[in-house]
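Consider the following assembly input.
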Amino acid sequence: MTLRSARTDVVALTLVVALGAAFVAYFALPFLGLADRAASDGRVWDLATDTAVRSALWLSLWTAGLSTVIAVACGTPVAYWLARTRIRGRSVLDALVDLPIVLPPTVAGVALLTAFGGRGLLGEPLADLTGFRFTFTTAAVVMAQVLVAAPFYVRTARSGFAAVDPQLEHVAYTLGASRTETFLRITLPQARGALLAGIVLCWARAMGELGATLIFAGSLEGRTRTMPLAIIDAFERTSLGLAGAVSMSLILLVVALAVLVLFRAVAPAEARR
Amino acid sequence: MNRLRSSIALLFILPFALLACSDDEATPEATATAATATATGAATDVATAEPTLASGSIVVSAASSLTDAFTEVAVAFEATNPGVTVDLNFGSSSELATQIVEGAPAEVFASANEAQMAVVIDAGVAEVAEIFAQNVIVVAVPADNDSVQAFEDIAADGVRLVLAGVDVPVGDYARRAISAASTAGVYGADFQSRVLANVVSEEPNVRAVLAKVELGEADAGIVYATDASVSGDAVRVVEVPAEYSTPAVYPIAAVGENPSEQALAFVAFVLSQEGQAILAGFGFAAP
């Protein structure tokens, strides 16, 4: 290595480190700001034990969990098929999977109403026949989350499956493994990293879902008011205001972080079996 | 087979169709979040008028219920003051008050109640406010839905009622009217608890409440008379008896220690005969 190239390295390294540090600072500062505001408000603990906040947090946790389970159960076959199919117009299908990601959540909420609302394509006949309406129910919360969050799982899982060499699957078949066995013992473990990343993305997006939920499910404590909706509501409350909303945001972030860390700690052990 | 094919085709076309028609149904989107609109008037028409104000632009933060009225007020103001641009920022009064206290740029604040104006004045961000309009609350009902015919029907079994959140001004006025009617006892002492049991959603602002009614998802929603008049044929209005409802008052203030001359002129314009006439056209009562 010449002296000159070493000097180039130093310059490049300094530049890269500076850019990286600026990036990290850019993301860290807003969170520090939140923590700082919440600390000066001093109500974080009171709010963490408040029944309305707890009910919102619990609702968020289980609905986002259920939405993720639905995304994995129904999205995995779709993702695998998208990764393996050779049919024409595949790029159009890929784009369709991404479409809900582009859709502003509020529009996603309106779209859900046009399909499942009381005057929707499916919602109206359903309401006429059974009297049941999805709007304003907890089911609507889950539906909104699935529509908005599941594409994150499907597209990540699709890339994961696409990266698994089809030759490996063929070798397994020639060795006498069934399709199911091959999928479970070859394909799934190979795509594990991507699937886990997809699950995390999907769950996180579902936890943060606000716009579609507000339009399609409304906001009522204990039934449809998830944590993001409760934070918006707190923002309106003269008794809580911005400081209360900030404190609640911090609670949401801490709980989400705990769940994600726990998930990453547990997930590899699950896959080792 | 053909049917299956066309339904599959429909499935693929549907998302695009939804995107295409989202414009017509964008009301909830525009209302759920603070909407920003810029009113650019036909300033050139009145070039003959002596320009008294320095040119520039001002941000007017106004309550969602003022969306239509203030859009027109701004156009008229710009027409009389060439060179001055009014940027309108609509949202719930509480949201706007928080933004202003947090230092969001706004030269004028028009609130739908005195409580949120007090937030801004107590923070020292504005000094004096003047009442410029009044509004009353009504029950908005989807035109094709006859489950609510009178105010007392909002307590009927199975009525899906939507209110604005507890501290959103219109939500506060609604709850006070319900409580007053309950205390009066004419609909039974349990009126309030029966009504509150019917609440299926507490929306962040008045337009979001109205959207739920327009979409036919709610059987009834309590909104301002002015909002209900905006939605036209889609919504039928059921009056809240005057003895139970307090009129909503709208205060306006120029923001800042030394409000700009454009801001002061805008406030004066709203209070002027011309401004008041526009507001009256949208159903607002004079203070």
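Chain A is about 80% helix and 0% strand. Ask yourself how this observation constrains the way the partners meet.
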